[in-house]
Amino acid sequence: MENHNSNTSFSTAQNSLFDKISNSTVLKLFVILFLSLLLLIPLTLISDLIEERKTREQSVSEDIALNWGQEQVISGPVLAIPYRETIQKPIEKINDATTLEYKQTKWIFILPQNANITTDISPQQLSRGIYNSVVYNSSISIDGRFNKIDVTKLEIPAERIDWTGSRLVFGIQDFKGLGKRPLLSWNGQELTFDPDFNNLKLFSQNLVCPISVSPNENENHFKITLNLKGSKSLNFVPLSDQTNISARGNWANPSFVGAFLPTKRTIDKTNFSASWEIPSFSRKLPQQWSGDILPIYRFEKHKGSLTDDVELTQAATSTASSPIIPSDILVNSDMITINFLPDINNYQKTTRVAKYGILIILLTFTSLLFTEIIKKKRIHIIQYVLIGAAMVLFYTLLLALSEHIGFNPAYLIASIATVLLIGSFIKAITKDPKTALLFGAILGTFYLFIYLLMQLRDYSLIAGTIGIFIILAILMRVSTKINWYQFDNNHADQ
């Protein structure tokens, strides 16, 4: 009997201690904070899922580009004139000879005096499954002139120059984008380019045409026309002493980046036009140089891999008899680039929304705790866990829907579904429709706040900071109306 009373007394004391712990608002606050931090784990997994889907989209986009035509780079033309050079190589003494002489072909490279580039671009989106990739067709015309050829500064004897072997070299990035051979008009003579895979490797992929040049001609005029397909971006390497570029197309949101911004641009809902006037002052290359064949540029695709990773182990001689060192090689930042951005980047927006996940969870749990205290309705910690799971699931729902119907409709559907789910759950817990309606309105306001931040872009930081400040001010004001000891004194409804 005494043992039974002792057990009963221990059980009563244990229950009393458990009730005190369960009813402690401070302890519950710490449990909610711990739960919020715990929910960072599924939020991180969702961020990884977004990156995985984004990588999958990039893979499909690259596959489309491989079949259609990759990012294109228009470069040149460059006039190449061969000459013979006698090379003396020291050897071990053989028959009283200590050097070996042999002939080697080297080249004189001359850049145009001016080039006028005009292009009409027709971008479009190709679909594969649920993924889209921006591709384009373009018609390009390049006309200009070379000044009278004067190679005396290069100090090359005239008898060593092979004028009959002169070539005009023109570069693009991907031959697959060519529908037919580019045409060349050289001093009124109609010619065609042929691909060169072995000799004149000035560019990523080279088009070469034999031409007739003479040091006695005052000027040489050229015009190049071609139709070119590509994807994502169209790039130009300004090599002339004066380069003028005019581009237009039917795309609403192009991006102009690179070494020079357009001097004029017009963009509306369906079309754009832009023009550049580029002198040679910032060009890394001289107007003419001689020596071995070196790549003029190295192009880096958007995803970060190099399409042409060339070891620069050779040297050339400029007009000032100084070598062209690797720092003289042109890169993306020396080019003119027109990027064709997709209308909406769903993965980028979903990633930005997911970064606010912990903020929304904390605000929601705080609002739920205040609702619990003000309405004197107990909400179990397990129910907090279920509400947190529903909020985490919002981001997966947003990601899945945005791949099919776009970001804006997906955000609307996912947020409404989440608000209705949690609101109905609160109604079932509290048995009070007004409380559920109020909490649903608060949660909906949070989702609307995040959506507006997504639209503001440049002003999202200041808008977000002001918004959080206002929310904190409201919570501080509401907290002054609450008796924070009511649960500890067991005045809450059980």
UniProtKB/TrEMBL annotation:
Domain of life: Bacteria
One CC-aspect GO term: plasma membrane
Alphabetical keyword list: Membrane, Transmembrane, Transmembrane helix
TM segment ranges: 26-46, 356-374, 381-398, 410-429, 436-453, 459-478
Pfam family of the protein (one): CreD
Protein's name according to its UniProt entry: Cell envelope integrity protein CreD
Organism: Sphingobacterium athyrii
